[in-house]
Amino acid sequence: MPLTDPLPIMPFTSPVRGRVVVPGSKSITNRALLLAALCNRPVTLEGALFSDDTRIMARALGNLGIRIAEDEKGASISVLGCGGAVPAEAALLDVGLAGTAARFLTGLCAAAPRGRYRISGTDQMHERPMRGLIDALRSLGADIACLGKEGHLPIEIRARGLLGGAVSIDASESSQMLSALLMVAPLARGEVLVELSKPVREPYVAMTLQLMRQFGVDAGPHLPSGGPRVSVPSGTYRLNEGRYRVEPDASSASYFEALPLVCGGSVELPGLRRDSLQGDMRFAEVLGAAGLSVAHDANGIEASFAGGDRRGITRDFREFSDTFLTLAAIAPLLSGPTVITGIGHSRKQETDRVAGMARELRKLGQGVVEADDSLAITPRPLIEGQTIETYGDHRFAMSFAILGCHDLRGDGCPWLKIRDPGCCAKTYPEFFDALEALRTSSGAEAR
């Protein structure tokens, strides 16, 4: 579907009925790409995500001399692992606005036995936190020069491998920094004992540790009196069967989980499991407290709403903050205030997500109280005819698109527009196609 800019969102005039196969997880795809590159034999990732962020990661690995074969139609990526050695001894790597790629590639290049690498991105990426990772790698012997602001991209790495031993890291601003350190730690000359100087958001770190185990390295968490630690042995990654299945993306699923609360009906989301590696699966529980019914079975989940009270709720989103925008965007349709806490760190993501969400909700007439770490939203009559600014952030576009599916006027005519809808290419290029297909399958006419 061609995307006009701004894009009018067509409301659902009937309760939603249908099935959406969401793409693979970005978080898992980029972690699995790195681990596959470090394996000692070829690995094929099945169900992989193809988006801006994963293409950036795959392209950068290719620039480092690692052979990558992509089959976008088949949703698979084949990687010829290098067993811990980086074939190219010099490379310029552009990570765009991909935070996972920026942190993971910094770790990989620093752990290489030799080579000279420069990593840069967009101006926005140059403002995102990297200091905790850079400092930790330096303490393990890495030679990293910041070419602009200290603790930020762009950087130059003169690789000489990593020492083993104890290392402290502050990954409170982004758990991706800790994940990057953990994944390359097996390449060090001895066991690495990682100590956390400040608490981190645990679900993504747990995902990283589980993936490492699946790829043959068992990093053991410990909780001694001195503080949280993880010991990572030296070793080589391996995946004996040579194939790895990437889970569907729970963050992308959150938008369709919320849709029945907006227009009634039900949506099936195959492949999403209770035992998922992804912390964002907890968002279904949040929507359940707001009135959604969520059924799990071996095939996936079904989210439904047959009517009744759609309740405003209070929730801490620290451990699954990518989904807070979904709840905030539909909060105008809930009865009573919605209070969202634990989101201060999201001010340093693609954009300041807390301030941006407050700004766009006020534009729609909502009562919003913004604090450093929270938003309190009081529903008021929605103001139609507004255009939502996305700030280049895919999650603004997708969250407010779900709100726009509400038939505010009662005539099926669009009342809300989304600026720069193409920004969804970062993680879900087909989002608006999937939303339109669901609308038409639910009884509306195609555009």
What do you see in this structure?
- With 447 residues, this protein is α/β, with parallel strands linked by helices.
- The protein has two domains: 7-20 and 249-441, Enolpyruvate transferase domain (UDP-n-acetylglucosamine1-carboxyvinyl-transferase, Chain, Alpha-beta prism); 26-218, UDP-n-acetylglucosamine1-carboxyvinyl-transferase, Chain.
- The protein is 29% helix and 22% strand.
- It contains twelve helices and 23 strands.
- A four-stranded mixed beta sheet has the order 2-15-17-16. It has a four-stranded mixed beta sheet with strand order 4-5-3-14, with helices on one face.
- The chain is globular and about 65 Å long.
- The mean pLDDT is 95.
The biggest beta sheet reads:
4 strands, mixed
Number of individual domains? 2
Percent of residues in helical segments?
Answer: 25-40%
Number of strands: 23
Give me the oligomer status.
single chain
Gyration radius (Cα, Å) is 22 Å
Question: Layout of helices and strands, plus pairs?
Answer:
Blueprint: E1 7-8, E2 16-19, H1 26-37, E3 43-46, H2 52-63, E4 67-71, E5 76-80, E6 90-94, H3 99-111, E7 115-120, H4 131-139, E8 143-146, E9 155-159, E10 165-169, H5 175-184, E11 192-196, H6 202-214, E12 220-222, E13 229-232, E14 243-245, H7 250-263, E15 265-270, H8 283-290, E16 293-297, E17 300-305, E18 314-316, H9 324-330, E19 338-341, H10 353-363, E20 367-371, E21 374-378, E22 386-388, H11 394-404, E23 416-418, H12 431-441
Parallel strand pairs: 2-15, 3-14, 6-7, 10-11, 18-19, 22-23
Antiparallel strand pairs: 1-23, 3-5, 4-5, 7-9, 8-9, 11-13, 12-13, 15-17, 16-17, 19-21, 20-21
Helix pairs in contact: 1-2, 1-3, 1-6, 2-3, 3-5, 4-5, 5-6, 7-8, 7-11, 9-11
